[in-house]
Structures are given as structure tokens and as C-alpha cells.
Known about the structure:
This protein is mainly β. The chain has three helices and twelve strands.
Amino acid sequence: MPELRSVRQPAPSEIDERVFRDSLGCFATGVTVVTTRSEQDRPLGVTVNSFASLSLDPPLVMFALRRESTTLPMIRGVGVFAVNVLATTQREVAARFAAGPPRWEDLDLREMVTGAPVIGGSVASLDCRLHAIHPGGDHEILVGEVLALEQDPSEPAPLLYHRGDYAALG
Length: 170
């Protein structure tokens, strides 16, 4: 049996934040807009690229939000959200929800089950009930149970994020 050698692991404070971000940027991710409604029924949304599937049975998805996000307490309060997987044609929508108002102008919106806004033209949309929230450093990891979903095979490929910019397949 080969001898196992221990390698000194650097403390988190020894990791250069810029190098860390650049290294993670080498991994292409999909781009989503997570939407919900406030307790006053006002639509809220934020661009998220940390989205992933978690479980088939039950159907669970997850994503992470910064602890300072204004959307986080709203999702926690109302307990529902929708994940809109953006198409390559929705680059402007991604930028709009990453930057700030105006966010909702000229969008084709509808609802499925929970009342969370669903953005038309998305490749897929998943309507979810909040299942769990877990701590994750300076973020919170939100897990949602998918209650309804739809996909539009006629939409173009999904929008990607790679090395600090939007990208497309191919």
C-alpha cells in the first residue's frame, strides 16, 4: 500500500481572493434569475449563477445568496421562489437583475403555483417552496422543493457565465 503523505493546507486567509475568484471563473455556470414576491406582494428578483439540482426524490434544487442580499429575507419570509433559467437572448435581463432597477419593465411575466413571478422567454422555469436554508460562509444556501416546472424547447441555448462575462454554447 502506498504511503500517504500529508500536504499542508493553507489557511483560508492565505488564499488570495482575486486568484480564488479567477480560478472559479474558469468553471462555466448557467445564469438564472431567482424571483419571489414580498409580503406586500411586490415582485423581487436577483441574478444567480450558483444554481444546481440537488435531488430527484424529492425534487430539490439549490442556490446561494449573499447574506446581505435584500432578496434573502423576502424568500425566507414568504417561503417561495421561482428559478428562471435564462436563454442566450436574455443577456440584458441577467444584467438588469444583477445591477438594480429598473428590473421589471417590459418583461413577459406570469405565475405557476406559488405566485412567484416567472419570466417569459426563459429556457426553463421552476416554481419552488423553500425547503431549507444552510449557512455557507458569507452566503446562505437555499434549498427549494420544485412544485411546478416548465421548459420551452423552442428557446435558444441557455445563457452561460464564464471568466467574468456572459457566454453561449458553441
